[in-house]
Amino acid sequence: MFLNRSVPQQPHHSSEKQSSTASPNYEGLVRFLVQPFLESPESLSVDCEISQSLQKAWIRIAFDSADKGKVFGRGGRNIQAIRTVIAAAAEVAGQSVYLDIYGSSASREGAAFDEDREERVPPPKSRERRGDGNGNGPMPIAKPRTR
After folding, report:
1. Dist CA 76 CA 37 (whole Å)
2. CA 75, CA 121: separation in Å to the nearest integer?
3. Spatial separation of the C-alpha atoms in residues 61 and 102, rounded to whole Å
4. Which residues, in sequence order, are CB contacts of 114 under 8 Å at separation 6+?
5. Cα separations in angstroms, 59 against 10, 51, 115, 116, 131
6. Rounded to two decimals, what is the model's pTM?
7. Three-state DSSP state, 5
8. Which residues pair with 58 in a beta bridge?
9. In what order do the strands lie in the sheet with 96-102?
C-alpha cells in the first residue's frame, strides 16, 4: 500500500551497479566540509579535475597554514572523516577520488608545501628497547649503593 502516490517508484535492481554519468559537486562538498574548521573561510582554495574516461576525480585544496591543525584534527581524525564522506559521494557516482592538501595558498600562491602534506609525514619512531641483545626483553636497572 502506497500512501503517497505522487512520488514515482523506480524499481531497484541490486544486481546492476548504479553508474551515473553526472559527477557530484566535489567543490561544493569540500567547501561545506572544510570551511567550518577555518578561521578565514575565504582562504580556502579548491581545485577539482574529473576524468570521465577513468572514472576518477582529483581534488586539491589549500588554506592558511594556521588552520592546518583544526582541519586535520587530533590524530588526523577530521581530515579522515572528510575523505570518507568525499569517497562515499564518489562511490555512489561510480568514481574514485583523491584528495591532496597543500599549504597556504597566500604565501606561495598554490605551490605545494612538502612539509605540510599529510602523506609525507614519516611515522613516529619507536623507542629503543633495552635488552640483552638476544630479544629477551628489558634488563633490570641496578641501583647504585648509597652508604
Report:
1. 13
2. 12
3. 6
4. 120
5. 33, 12, 19, 16, 48
6. 0.57
7. coil
8. 49, 98
9. 45-51, 56-62, 96-102
Coil, strand, or helix at residue 58? Answer: strand
**Cα–Cα distance between 143 and 137 in angstroms, integer?**
19
Nearest residue to 31 (alpha-carbon basis) of 55, 58, 70, 61 = 61
Helix or strand run (H / E) with residue 47: strand 45-51
- Per-residue burial over 54-72, b if 16 or more Cβ lie within 10 Å, else e, is eeebebbbbbbbebbeebb
Between CA 104 and CA 88 the distance in angstroms is: 27
pLDDT tens digits, one per residue of 106-143: 433 333 334 444 444 455 555 555 555 565 666 667 77
Question: What's the confidence (pLDDT) of residue 145?
Answer: 78
The model's pLDDT over 5-55, given as tens digits with 9 standing for 90+, comes to 555 555 555 444 444 457 899 999 999 999 999 999 999 999 999 998 899
- DSSP reduced 3-state for 111: coil
CA distances from 63 to 46, 47, 50, 142 (A): 9, 12, 21, 53
Amino acid at 31: R
CA distance 49 to 93: 15
